[in-house]
Prior knowledge:
- The complex is a heterodimer of chains A (413) and B (582).
- Chain A is α/β, with parallel strands linked by helices and 413 residues long.
- Chain A contains 17 helices and eight strands.
- In chain A, the strands form two sheets. Chain A has a six-stranded parallel sheet with strand order 3-2-1-5-4-6. Chain A has a two-stranded antiparallel ribbon with strand order 7-8.
- In chain A, helix 9 packs parallel to helix 14.
- Chain B has helices at 2-20, 28-36, 38-43, 55-73, 91-99, 123-132, 139-149, 154-167, 174-186, 190-203, 209-219, 226-238, 243-255, 259-271, 278-287, 294-309, 316-328, 361-377, 381-384, 387-399, 409-413, 421-433, 456-465, 478-488, 501-506, 510-523, and strands at 334-340, 405-408, 439-444, 467-471, 493-495, 524-525, 527-530, 536-538, 549-550, 554-559, 574-580.
- In chain B, the strands form three sheets. In chain B, strands 4-3-2-5-6 form a five-stranded parallel sheet, with helices on both faces. A four-stranded antiparallel sheet of chain B has the order 1-11-10-9, covered by helices on one side.
- Classes of the chains: A alpha/beta (413), B alpha/beta (582).
Amino acid sequence: MSVSFTFLSPFARCWAPFILHRKKKNLYSAVLQRYICSKTPSAPFPNKESTAPTEELELDKWKITMKSSMQDVSVVSGNEEDTLTATKELIEMWRLLGREVPENISEEELKTVMDCVSKSSKKKYLKYLYVKEKAKKAKQIKKEMKAETMEKARDDRLLETIKEDKQQNFLFLRLWDRNMNIAMGWKGVQAMKFGQPLVFDMAYDNYMKPKEMGYTISQLLESEGWNRRDIDPFHIHFCNLKMDGPYYTELVKRYGEKWDKLLLTTTEKSFVDLFPKDRIIYLTADSPNVMKSFRHDKIYIIGSLVDKNVHSGLSLAKAKRLNLATECLPLDKYLQWEMGTKNLTLDQMIRILLCLKNTGSWKEALKFVPQRKHTGYMDVSQQSQELLNRLKKLKTSNKFPKGSLKQHTEKNR
Amino acid sequence: MNFCFTSIRNFSKLWKSHQYLGLGPGQSLAVFKDYCGLKNQKKWFSRKPGSPQNTKANNLLIAKAKYLRKGNVGSNKPEFSESPHYFAAGSAKKRSQNINPSKDRALPPVKCSLQIPTKPLTSEEWAKLQADFKGKANFENWMFSQMVRSHSSLDVAKSLLAWVAAKNSGIVGYDLLVKYLCLCVFHKQTSEVIDVYEIMKTRYKSLDSGANTLLIRGLILSDRWREALVLLENIKRVMVPSKTNYNDCIQGALLHQDANLAWNLYQELLDYKLIPVWETFKAFFDFGRGMKDDQYTKKLLDILLYLRNNRLYPEESFAHSIKNWFESVPGEQWQAQFTTVHKSGQCLGCGKTIESSQLSSEEYDYLKGKIMMDVIDGGDQYKKTTPQELQRFKNFVKTCPPFDIVIDGLNVAKMFPKTQESQSLLDVVSQLSEMNLRLLVLGRKHMLMPSSRWRKDTMKKVQKLASCFFADNISEDDPFLLYATLHSGNHCKFVTNDLMRDHKACLPDVKTQSLFFKWQQGHQLAIIKKLPGSKVVFQPILSYDTVVQTTGDSWHIPYDDDQVERYSFEVPTKWLCLHRKS
């Protein structure tokens, strides 16, 4: 590096006067052009500029102004070796180019950028920051607008109350939220005592990157929320939850002081130690067995795992190791699957299970499967039709190509 | 069927190489050959690339051709037309076209809205044009992007810049400047490149990687080419430079006769674990033409060895460069020709035998261990099988004497959808057992359950003719297949049409993967078709290894034909044969 810089500086010194004096510069470029022309005769584009300079349009005028507003030349030599500033400058230049990079970046994030191994991972991370920044800004604007309208509404209301200041009779104080929470807590305690267990298996921390772990925790939070609001909640167990593991620290971080008041069971033990093995059913999309109906006497287990890079068969392998029964949702039976994996998110799983538990209807339960993944429900008649079609195809496939071949050859003649 | 595809592919190649015109001296010849499509026409039917109106007629022709071919081959579904080898370049493409021929025929949609001006406009004219422009994007940006795309002349671009500058009190944005630079580089206007370089240097503290790349490419043609190296250093401060950055710098160094610098850059490139682009190699060979310099010659031969070790196959134009260099070496009379290799492994050019694809015993043991460790076990034995089953299998293999052929029962049975599964398995097994070979059939337990697809009596017959091992229904059978074959020794082959790409992907590094591929080529019997009398025809096994190789006074270099699209798991079929006149 140092070697190359040494020959830059004499160059820079040499060229600086040329830049300042336009005449000389033109002379130089003319010489250079001649040189280039002789060097590369096969240039695909005819050298218009040298042959017919279009004077009346003053094509090069912009260059003068660009050069005249010159910065301190000493900056150019680039003596600061710090990659940090270099990275910062690069990001700034990318922003000028309209790339997807954040406007402001903290030191910490900058260090993360530098730690990214490859160019693409850098770009990916920067895009993530960009999107985050954009969302934050949009939220801020929305908040301000809301505050404005609220202010207005309050003023209006004030006027109204002044106008008609009369007593009204109410049955309840407005304490709905608190009452709701208390009721849910009551139901939760009931579930802790008499509810059907539902286990989240937290033994997959080695298979997930921090990002995926974040997603998993979000999904767990949401699952717990859905369960709490349900009319007949499960008794949730977080099994294999290591007290110093990433699951635990993240959960405590998200729940805050509420963590200790959650109405669910957390344990470092495995579910095989808590429940009899023959009552356990491990739910995994890789299972060969299809779930026919929801059993109220079984203990269903959901692996709390988000795998962005495909660890296929991970939970199936786990169930095999512990010699447990496995089941998967009958997605193909009831839905016309279109795209996406059959792995559903944790909150979708718990909503489906809750619905099954309360109603027992598959059609009702499977409406929690994202709509983009399927085109609609399979009706029974259609299913049998398909089977028939398949059989027909098998039978006719012997005849079909030959027949059509004949037709084609006849046409040829 | 094929001419349609080739024409489209050439079209895209044309665009690519056109863009690259900016670089190599001596490269233009090859490009123009592509350009005119001279070569491919003698190969396929001599049809002109179809215009959009013509596609309908084309489709009809294609459909006809398809049906006719179907008639020729026979009524069986897996119809792989007259045997290019299973792993030969382009055969996967052909297979996929057989399955769904309608794919990738559509031409890219042609977008056109506003006309791109062809000559410089005045400010008023630009303002008028902007008024006409309806679109979300910024007018100047959009217009400039279009101009870059259609390679407008520099004067037009300049007039746009002048107009923008006039609007913005003499300031032109960085993005427009970069786009202008892109045009300058494309048209090889070196003086303009230097002008823009000066402007950028004065206005901005540092540049982004894209601008640096463009500047490097522009500067190497001028006599300020050494500054390109400074720019390269600038890129290095933030990220690893791309291989094209290095390529440009190396080309520049060679253009200005500084071979040492070029080799240093090349070494740096390798140290970053980047794989150089073909142009880089080509530049070295072109530069060394007619040179008598032992040091330089040795380095070129090192490049060839690098290709060998990484199993890279030169593209056609590079093969020509290699040939030309060998022929130009003073004092050594090299004779070169483009040929193919006979099935037996003999070069049709000089008659020498190509290296055998057999692994050495060390390599063999290493591969066996790796397959056991990474493919079957993989850190969790429960993923693909169970420990009990693995033990059962190991005991089973140990008690049996080595096999000659291992058959993937399910794959073979499902090959012919019109025959009953157990019957087609029996056909294959009985045909092979007639040759007095010791067979092993791998399958799953459900095959033993009598059903309409798996008849009990036929399965009994199979079990009489061959040893059988049935894995659990949820276990994978392929890893067992691989291990059983490897365990039986070097003579043992396996029958399946599976390309085993997923198992190859389980292997930890590229070296092991290529070793696996080499072994697979030499030991996999793929079924090509079935003759009427329930006879099955196997793909003949390649006895030779497709890789760059030398015997000192001869070189054999497989290369990629420009017309054939080779998939990563296939090998080229064309060779460059070089040998010394004696």
